[in-house]
Design a protein that fits this description.
The chain is α/β, with parallel strands linked by helices. It folds into two domains: 72 residues, Helicase, Ruva Protein, domain 3 (Orthogonal Bundle); 89 residues, Rossmann fold (3-Layer(aba) Sandwich). The chain is built from nine helices and six strands, in the order αααααββαβαβαβαβ. The strands form two sheets. A four-stranded parallel beta sheet has the order 5-4-3-6, covered by helices on one side. A two-stranded antiparallel sheet has the order 1-2. Strand 4, helix 8 and strand 5 form a beta-alpha-beta unit. The longest helix is centred in the first third of the chain and has 15 residues.
């Protein structure tokens, strides 16, 4: 089975199931199965899939057809030009949440201390730290989410402080310039 044929078959299956943007989803899942960037698919449509690649692609298609989000299958989502790791322990960063970053940058240009409440994957905290250089604290009640966020911060080189807690019980006393 070639990349070109696999894409056609995958797209067909996803279209039959009314999965939105079926072609793009098939491309993302196949690239993930091949451990390559999507551009590879277009440059090498004649590439013959190994048995392992075919099995992975089939499994990813099956998971998507069962309703699992593509981002949880691939374990990643782009946000504000950066790649964030995601797991089912966190919500998937949404493109419209980039407006939160833009609003925060406008409203608090001189913010020195920022608090991200319910940080999930850490996409807001990490992005605001890297874009502003401010001291950023991030909190979530889920320790699993904190682990995901802390790993994203470390991987992306953002010095963010994380606290697993009910934010209202801990940060009442702390002065912050911006809360997101």
């Amino acid at each position: 089975m070639t990349v070109g044929t696999a894409l056609l078959q995958g797209t067909g299956l996803l279209e039959e199931a009314a999965i939105p943007v079926a072609r793009l989803t098939a491309e993302v899942l196949l690239a993930h199965a091949l451990r390559r960037e999507r551009v590879y698919l277009f440059a090498h449509p004649e590439h013959e899939l190994s048995e392992v690649e075919w099995l992975h692609y089939g499994r990813y298609l099956h998971e998507r057809l069962q309703g699992k989000p593509t981002q949880y299958i691939t374990g990643r989502q782009e946000f504000y030009g950066r790649e964030f790791r995601v797991t089912p322990d966190v919500l998937i960063p949404r493109p419209e949440n980039e407006h939160v970053v833009e609003a925060a940058l406008k409203l608090a240009r001189d913010a020195r201390r920022v608090l991200d409440v319910g940080c999930g994957s850490g996409n807001l905290a990490v992005t605001l730290r890297l874009e502003t250089g401010a001291e950023v604290w991030a909190s979530d009640i889920s320790t699993a989410a904190i682990r995901v966020a802390a790993a994203n911060a470390e991987r992306l080189g953002a010095a963010v402080s994380f606290v697993a807690c009910d934010v209202m019980s801990v940060f009442r006393w702390a002065a912050k310039d911006l809360i997101v």
